[in-house]
Amino acid sequence: MRWGRLIAGVLAVGGVAFGIFGGEYSTLDWWQLKREVRAEERSIAQLRAEVDSLGVWAALVETDSATQERVARERFGMIRDGEMVYSVAPER
After folding, report:
1. From CA 59, how far away is CA 67, in angstroms rounded?
2. Strand ranges, E, within 16-66
3. Could you tell me the CA-to-CA distances from 90 to 73, 77, 87 in Å, in that order?
4. How far apart are CA 21 and CA 18, in angstroms?
């Protein structure tokens, strides 16, 4: 009777240990995969927010004359008639 309980206890502990650490995908591997999935979901959410803001920016560039003027001035150095452009060169 004593040996039976001992063997049953060892098998139970062994089964729990195998469930946590053993097999092709252990519980520890599963936890790691869940952490990676959460990290990827956060990354996807950040990228979606960035895409949304870029979509708003693209719509403004296509339709808003003030935004178009700002882009033309900043990126292409365009000026209106009568304006002068001053450029400051960095010190060497």
Report:
1. 10
2. none
3. 20, 18, 10
4. 5
9 vs 29: CA distance, rounded Å: 26
Of the pLDDT bands very low, low, confident and very high (cuts 50, 70, 90), residue 1 is low
Q: In the predicted model, is pLDDT for residue 76 greater than 80?
A: yes
pTM across the whole model = 0.56
Helical axes 27-63 vs 2-21, angle rounded to 10°: 20
Using CA atoms, how far residue 86 sits from 66, 77, 79, 83, in Å, is 22, 10, 11, 10
What long-range pairs does 85-90 form, CB within 8 A, spacing at least 24? none
pLDDT digits (tens, 9 = 90+) for 20-45: 666 677 777 888 899 999 999 999 99
Which two three-digit tokens encode residue 58? 């693209």
For tokens 């990354």, the residue is: 43
